[in-house]
Amino acid sequence: ASRVHMPTKLPRPAPPVRHAPAGFRAASAAILAAVLTAAAIAAPSTPADPAAVDHLPERLERIVDRLESLMAEHHVPGAAVAIVVGGEPVLVRGLGVRDRSTGEPVTAGTLFAIGSATKSMTGLLAAAEALEGGVPLDAPVAEVLPELTFHDPETTAAITLADLLSHTSGVMRTDLLWYGGYADWNDILAAFAKAEPVADLGEAFHYQNVLYLAAGRIIGEKSRRGWEGLLETRILRPVGMAATGIDAEELRGPQGARGHDWAELGKYAVRDAEGRPVLPWVDPAEVAVAEDGSG
Known about the structure:
By secondary structure, the chain is α+β, with helices and mostly antiparallel strands.
């Protein structure tokens, strides 16, 4: 929710110090969660309980049945599921179809757009880089990305990298600036600077995609590898995510899941001049529409 206010004003950090801060804002706990997730990935896996393994096939099928039921209930055309027990994959399966117009099934190799799940990756990269001498989380953005300005000059001067990552800038969603990929970075910055805040810096949580884009740019430029290079070398490659990429063109290939617009919800979709739904990861002409409203 974009207007969920916290009960009290979040504390502003002390004047910037050039080492890892003692703590972050309450809303930035996701960064710590991402770090702990990474630690869990690297830690030795716990052997599976033999008693539980005995009944594993039946339990897995019950999970699949439940997922298929939820897909039907929520009009999801296709999904992929993977379950790991004791460090070993025990279920890797595609469910439903990747394209309703052709009926092509989802497989274990189908590529999906994961959207804002990448925010946890950006938070992890920011925390890891800060711990290793990169941009501190309490660094003023004005010092590391001076081209990013806000409607309020005080916010421009005071906002930190941690503020960007914790959605506490006071600016609500400005998604039309990036949605569809039609505007370049300079256009986005110029328009964002005109967005009026709805809360003071650090006062409330307001989900913000553009500022995560800025956070990724900050850590990428400092590392001289770019956000894409950091993602590849620090997350994807170490954990073996060889099929994961950032190029939307891959989703248009034979392994890509197509975007679907459920007819009953179509009036809420962003559409182009010809009335076709526009999704940021696909060409509007390639969106499959389920006219019967079933998925």
